[in-house]
Amino acid sequence: MDKPKVVLGVSGGIAAYKACELLRRLTESGHDVRVVPTEAALHFVGAATWSALSGNPVSTGVWTDVHEVPHVRIGQHADLVVVAPATADMLAKAAHGIADDLLTNTLLTARCPVVFAPAMHTEMWEHPATQENVATLRRRGAVVVEPAVGRLTGADTGKGRLPDPDEIFEICRRVLARGAAAGRDLAGRHVVISAGGTREPLDPVRYLGNRSSGKQGYALARTAAARGARVTLIEANTGLPDPAGVDVVRVGTAVQLREAVLKAAADADAVVMAAAVADFRPAVYAEGKIKKKDGQEPAPVALVRNPDVLAEISAERARPEQVVVGFAAETDDVLANGRDKLRRKGCDLLVVNEVGERKTFGSEENEAVVLAADGAETPVPYGPKEALADTVWDLVVPRLGASGDTDSGNSG
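The line above is the sequence of Coenzyme A biosynthesis bifunctional protein CoaBC; the predicted structure tokens follow.
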């Protein structure tokens, strides 16, 4: 079978060197990659490097190999175009249809999904002109991933760092898997996802926790970003790398998670509560480590209830058309308990799965039934957690309101 054809556009930013790792991931996973750098990009990484790593010729202008009409053919034959890094200049040209080199011509002729991975200084990313350009590209169906937060050029730190190449590769893989529909059905939408497990401190050393790894929530975040959404991920104690194109908010306890979810949900189209939120917390926090005393049994640990975040956001939705999805981890009478929880929580969808020491927690696979408030049941067979995530979004999309927030790119 023909290899999927990917065009890797590289614009002139210091992060251009990171695109070499993205190129390696794409070629090693069986993709035929044509690198199309800008002239400015060649100041950072030379054409010989791109050609050697991709096995394909490299050019920047429309006058090379004119008989092959490269400014038209490259885009026409591509299954995916990804621009990484995408500078503010490149985003502006793409949004306004400027075609002054081979890469911008390729973007105009491409009829396949297009992914932009921006990288620039924070002030440039937050500038209204850049945000307008990002909103325009997203409105047209392009996937513009959110930049990461971290060290920038020189001593500067902030939002604008190119996401990890491995995470950009995962976005590209998901976009390719969905084909022409990728980046469109959640474009202009803001989704909030919780992931991981909360920890309730008992003393400075110990806490009450659970086995949740956060991998299902992260799969939901990655698939939503690949489908064009602006994603806020509320992360509780996972230790996982940040997904590309996702705003990550880190929390520890159930109370902190509630505060973060309520804040992020204020303008969200959908909220998916995939985190394992502790039902109880110690009534008293010991300021010092609780000591073991010879010959004495430990004192009982009194517990108090944590807030029921899923029930709260279901009952008091920030927007009338907001879709709320919950998760139920059950060990017995799975469906019966799930139906009861769906009724009590008041959410639109509830993902019910059986859990245990060797089931679901920490695994790359999952099996579930998605229950709907209207009585529908959607079984999801055992398979990758990304498959379950896509099924959840497939069920969320038709329940969303008719119009998305076309300015959802304005996160600066």
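Note on the example: The two ends are 44 Å apart (CA to CA). The CA atoms of residues 12 and 41 lie 4 Å apart.
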